[in-house]
Amino acid sequence: MNNSSPDNWITYLKNSGLSGILLFVLILLMGNSLQVKGQDPEFSQFYANPIYLNPAFTGTSALPRVVVNYRNQWPRQGNTFTTYNLTYDKFINSTTGGIAFKMMYDRQLNGVINSISASFVYAEHFYISDGVFFSMALESGFIYKQFNTSGLIFPGMIDQGTGAINGTYPLPTENGEKLIPDFSFGTVGQFDDYYFGFSFHHLTQPDQSIISGDHAGKLPLKLTIHAGAKSHEFHRGLLSREFTLSPNLVYQQQGGFKQVNVGIYTKEDWLTLGLWYRNNISYRPNSITAMIGYQSDKFQFGYSFDFSISNVAAYSYGSHEISLVFFLGQYHRRLFNNNIVIPQM
Q: Is the Cα torsion angle 51, 248, 260, 204 positive or negative in sign?
């Protein structure tokens, strides 16, 4: 038996850029079993990806809308977690609702787990009066997950003396991929300058485990509750400019994971600034997100950076996020009166 310190193989993993895979093994693999209990990718620019936040935002923009989102989480470790999202939605003039199509590609742990999801959304709008409006939506689609288990490295495969990797580790998997149906529901409302809503994602809690006969790999139901307000315009005397403030709250829960996000936006003409505080109640790694954005009638751009203020900061090095929003066509007031006033990011 080799009596050398186990720190040797840990140091080897870090030096060889494999610490992301080690983290995957430590979190996901316990007791030599492979149970995949997923948590959805999250975006910091909640309202720059509104239909991902809540499908009931479908068709609530005055113009047809194309949204592109990119997030790179923990960039110091390479492409550890990267997510791409594309959404198109519009209000249907011949009905009282809107439709949307959403696609997302998520790459985790440098390609150990890859997922592609696509869904269709229909939202029914209920116009009560000027400033009073709500929407309900149902989303249906699929999630395709691919697990690259051949790239996993287990401690038992590492020579503690030399750090050399040899041998293989048998995994009792059916295959390395899974295709599952997925359904979500949401509702949003607005009363004058206040907006609010909730959504349930993964209503059927589909099984995403790749273990034969395993029933513990269900994708947990995700609950999102959000609320915010748009203030009246304030006047800044120095430059004689007007600006608005918008406080917001987003609560999310998925399985044992609970998170509270508290933020505020300020908008002045074409410029928007935002600041959010994130508190992961269950696991306590907290962060602060700073945002800056540009808006015009047909285009919006947003950039944000997550500053980790927990003990994972040295490993993660924050997260970058970019959003692009394009508005298409021409606005006709007589054809549309269901616009929800929400922040741009």
A: negative
